[in-house]
Design brief:
The protein has 4 helices and 24 strands. α2 runs antiparallel to α3. It has a 6-stranded antiparallel β-barrel. It is an alpha+beta fold. It is 28% helix and 36% strand. It folds into 4 domains: 85 residues, conserved putative lor/sdh protein from methanococcus maripaludis s2 fold (Beta Barrel); 95 residues, Efflux pump adaptor protein, beta barrel domain (Elongation Factor Tu (Ef-tu), domain 3), CATH 2.40.30.170; 59 residues, Beta Barrel (OB fold (Dihydrolipoamide Acetyltransferase, E2P)), CATH 2.40.50.100; 75 residues, Helix hairpin bin (Helix Hairpins, Orthogonal Bundle).
């Protein structure tokens, strides 16, 4: 019985010895596997750009409102029935184009009456002139009294005045007849037609038949902070304005404008001042009353270190970028930003000119991640 117990104990010792040996061998294999080059993390593909120093103009972004230079309500100048509407509402009309025809028959009759009165008064004037000429010869000889001669002269003056009044009445009647055809005073787009064919309109009602609004060019009103006023005044002639009407400012087409007006007061409630620019609208893609994004660019600012805006990340500790070092690893660096201009940002601290910053692929990076440069942008 003692021999069996000894054999059992020896077998148990052998089992534990084998387990310990296998554990040591497994650990050794694991250590050798960690040094295998194939087990190293693969390089992450990224796109980079080079941080560069460049001239950075002062750029101010502001919301703006488009205004029409001219918007003219068309009102009748004479009373009459609308006989015809000669345009389609919502279409472009040109200066001088016929818009409405009013019933001209009463006005034509008034003109004919004025002309008939002129003919009558001209006949009276001719008779009075002849009589005045005879009295002028007879008065010195005493054949007519002074009172009769004075009366003849007065009659002549009255006849001359009547003829002059008739001519003025004819001019007024002719003008009223012209007003029966209503034409566009400016080139622009028509709005809603308020009165149609058959409507009776009166000049005294002061109602608009339609409104014609000039579409090209337009004005844009916007405000900028008063701290930028000195820089704008110094570079007023060189300032450029870009108007963007689309929702996505990075892809929406811009409209170049020219700054032409700075208001004479600063709003004390907001500390901003009103500016106005003129914007061409040849394609008719902008509309009066439309809200737009305005970007005012003023030159003369000192050069600054810049990187593309897509390189900037934001974390719990603030803004950062990934810089690719000489060994091909991404290093996260905290940066201090200045203002952003168009598609790039000004960096005042954290990196230096010439540093290669990652502009695409950052979401997969950690500090020290190996990277593979896929495409290198020519610069910030």
């Amino acid at each position: 019985m003692r021999n069996c117990s000894l054999v059992t104990t020896c077998r148990s010792c052998s089992t534990w010895t084998a387990i310990a040996f296998l554990t040591v061998v497994a650990a050794g294999c694991s250590d050798r596997g960690s040094n295998n080059p194939e087990s190293v993390a693969p390089a992450i593909p990224v796109v980079i750009a080079v941080a560069a120093i460049r001239d950075v103009p002062l750029t101010i972004d502001s919301p703006g409102t488009l205004q029409a230079i001219n918007s003219v309500p068309i009102r009748p100048r004479v009373d009459g029935e609308i006989m015809a509407v000669e345009f389609m509402e919502g279409t472009e009309v040109h200066a001088g184009q016929l818009l409405f025809r009013l019933d001209a028959r009463p006005l034509q009759a008034a003109l004919a009456q004025s002309r008939a009165q002129l003919a009558k008064d001209e006949a009276t004037l001719t008779r009075n002139r002849s009589q005045a000429a005879r009295y002028e010869d007879l008065a010195p000889e005493g054949y007519v009294s002074k009172d009769d001669y004075a009366q003849v002269q007065a009659n002549l003056g009255i006849a001359e005045g009547a003829v002059a009044a008739d001519k003025a009445a004819i001019a007024a009647a002719s003008l009223n007849l012209d007003y029966a055809t209503i034409r566009a005073p400016i080139t622009g787009r028509t709005g809603v037609i308020a009165f149609r064919k058959g409507s009776l309109v009166k000049a005294a009602d002061n109602l608009s038949l339609v409104t014609v609004t000039q579409m090209d060019p337009l004005l844009v009103d916007f405000s900028v902070p008063q701290r930028n006023l000195d820089a704008i005044n110094r570079r007023l002639k060189e300032a450029t304005v870009t108007i963007t009407s689309g929702g996505d400012l990075t892809t929406a087409p811009g409209h170049a404008g020219q700054l032409e007006f700075i208001n004479n007061t600063i709003d004390p409630a907001t500390g901003a001042i009103l500016l106005r620019a003129r914007v061409p609208n040849t394609e008719r893609s902008l509309w009066p009353g439309q809200f737009v994004h305005v970007q005012l660019e003023v030159g003369g600012s000192p050069p600054a270190l810049t990187v593309p805006s897509t390189a900037i990340g934001n974390g719990p500790d603030g803004n950062f970028v990934f810089v690719v070092d000489a060994t091909g690893h991404a290093r996260q660096r905290s940066v201090t930003l200045g203002r952003q201009v168009a598609t790039f940002a000004i960096v005042s601290a954290g990196i230096a000119a010439g540093d290669r910053v990652v502009i695409d692929g950052q979401s997969r990076l950690r500090d020290g991640s190996p990277v593979k440069i896929v495409t290198a942008s020519p610069g910030a």
